[in-house]
Amino acid sequence: MSEFFNVHSPSIAISKITSNREFPSLKKDLIKTINSLDRIIAEDIISDIDLPHFDRSSMDGYAIRSQDSNGVSESSPNYIRVIEEIKMGTQPSKSIKSGEASRIFTGGMLPIGADSIIMEEDTEELSDNFIEIKKSISIGENIIYKGEEIKKNKIIIVNGKRIRSQEIGSLLESGITQIKVYKQLNIGVLSSGDELINPHQNITPGKIRDINTYTISNLIKKTGSNVKNYPIMPDDFNKQLIQSKKAYKECDILIFSAGSSISYRDTTAKVIKNLGNPGIIIHGISVKPGKPTILGLCDKKLIIGLPGNPVSAVMIFINIVQPIIEQLYNHKSLKSYLNCKLDENISSKTGRVDYIPVKIISQNNKLFASPVLGKSNLINTLVQSDGYIVVPSEKRGLYKHTNVKVNQYE
Amino acid sequence: MSEFFNVHSPSIAISKITSNREFPSLKKDLIKTINSLDRIIAEDIISDIDLPHFDRSSMDGYAIRSQDSNGVSESSPNYIRVIEEIKMGTQPSKSIKSGEASRIFTGGMLPIGADSIIMEEDTEELSDNFIEIKKSISIGENIIYKGEEIKKNKIIIVNGKRIRSQEIGSLLESGITQIKVYKQLNIGVLSSGDELINPHQNITPGKIRDINTYTISNLIKKTGSNVKNYPIMPDDFNKQLIQSKKAYKECDILIFSAGSSISYRDTTAKVIKNLGNPGIIIHGISVKPGKPTILGLCDKKLIIGLPGNPVSAVMIFINIVQPIIEQLYNHKSLKSYLNCKLDENISSKTGRVDYIPVKIISQNNKLFASPVLGKSNLINTLVQSDGYIVVPSEKRGLYKHTNVKVNQYE
Question: Least packed by Cβ within 10 Å: which of A347, B2, B229, B365?
Answer without folding.
Answer: B365
